[in-house]
Amino acid sequence: MDGTVLITGASSGFGKACAEKFAEEGRPLILAARRLDRLEQLKSELAAKAPVHVLALDVRDRTAVEQAISSLPEPFAGIDVLINNAGLARGLEPSHKADLDDWETMIDTNIKGLIYCARSVLPQMVARNQGHIVNLGSIAGDWPYPGGNVYSATKAFVMQFSRNLRCDLAGTRVRVTNIEPGLSETEFSVVRFEGDADKAASVYKNTEPLTAEDIADIIHWVVSVPGHVNINRVEVMATFQTWAPFAIHREE
Ligand code: NDP
Ligand code: 8X3
Questions:
Q1: What is the domain-level CATH number for residue 218?
Q2: What end-to-end distance do the CA atoms of the chain give, in Å?
Q3: 24-61 tens-digit pLDDT
Q4: Does residue 40's CB lie within 6 angstroms of at least one atom of ligand 1?
Q5: What residues make up the domain containing 20?
Q6: Which terminus of the chain is more solvent-facing, meaning fewer CB atoms within 10 Å of its CB: N or C?
Q7: Domain assignment present for 50
Q8: What is the DSSP secondary structure assignment for residue 230, as one 8-state letter?
Q9: Distance 93 CA to ligand 1 centre (A)
Q10: What single-letter DSSP state applies at residue 200?
Q11: Ligand 2 touching residue 186 (CB < 6 A)
Q12: Pairwise CA distance, residues 31 & 11, whole Å
């Protein structure tokens, strides 16, 4: 498969690294995010390698997603791979203190934005009997942690939605993969902590976290295996990260 790759959240982190990785193959790329200036900069950096179309897109805007995907110019119109990556965490407060606006932002982006993008590309993939949707889940979708609350729940949605997509696509050659990374140093924590760079840096202090390039390499691999192979999910952690013991509260 060597057709167009649509990457949401391409202005930073995993999405940007995926753009750089897939550009090496010269595939047409559609790069979507809200920060158009960053996308334009990336487009100019990749121009010698691949045709690039940029989309200033807020994935929470259902109409904008539908319009953008239904009005793509040639040679970008037939999307072969959707890297459904745009997403974010907001806050790490326990549920009784968390900001309900943050919860809605995560639901609107990580769940609703993700399904808008998937739903917009699926009909053309099924019609061509070819395509691959790569969703960005997280280890947080499998494993709970304090303060993960709604962020983790959105990623559990992504995991189960990915599995159910596979059921609906039975009999087609359209593939679905859920990528479930752990600790990865991108702008993720800066966004989670509302721009507090020191707090964000402390998340990765004295560890060797995954990098955006690590995840882009894995995404490239799941897309590149032969078409009869569907990698359902990839859970990946930094070697420095493992599971915590169960927390048991003991009264004095
Ligand atoms: P970054 O913050 O570096 O990148 C997030 C990207 O999502 C940005 O390009 C941002 O672009 C885009 N984005 C956010 N909201 C919207 C929106 N409403 N519309 C369009 N684009 C949006 O983080 P990561 O690269 O780490 O995160 C990518 C995905 O990976 C997310 O889904 C995240 O939950 C997931 N993930 C991250 C892990 C980590 O530890 N870093 C681990 C597991 C999963 P812009 O602001 O320009 O719109
Ligand atoms: C991002 C990884 O562990 O911070 O999905 O939730 S984590």
A1: 3.40.50.720
A2: 62
A3: 999 999 999 999 999 999 999 999 999 999 999 999 99
A4: no
A5: 4-236
A6: C
A7: yes
A8: -
A9: 20
A10: H
A11: no
A12: 8
Q: Which residue has the least CA distance to atom 6 on ligand 2?
A: 140
Burial class (CB in 10 A: 0-12, 13-18, 19+), 215: buried
Catalytic residue numbers, as ranges: 151
**Could you tell me the distance, in angstroms and rounded to a whole number, from the CA of residue 213 to the centre of ligand 2?**
17
Quote the tokens at residue 15.
């999405």
**215 within a domain of the structure (yes/no):** yes
pLDDT tens-digit series, residues 159-204? 999 999 999 999 999 999 999 999 999 999 999 999 999 999 999 9
Q: Residue 241: which of 179, 160, 185 has the closest Cα?
A: 185
Whole-number pLDDT of residue 102: 98
Q: Distance, CA 60 to ligand 1 centroid (Å)?
A: 13
Residue located via tokens 């990580």: 110
Strand partners for 53: 30
The verdict on the CB of residue 154 being under 6 Å from ligand 1 is no
Q: Is 135 in the pocket of ligand 1 (CB under 6 A)?
A: no
pLDDT above 70 (res 5): yes
Type of residue found at 70: S
Domain membership flag for residue 252: no
pTM for this one?
Answer: 0.98
**Which pLDDT belongs to residue 252?**
87
Query: What mean pLDDT comes out for the span 214-228?
Result: 98
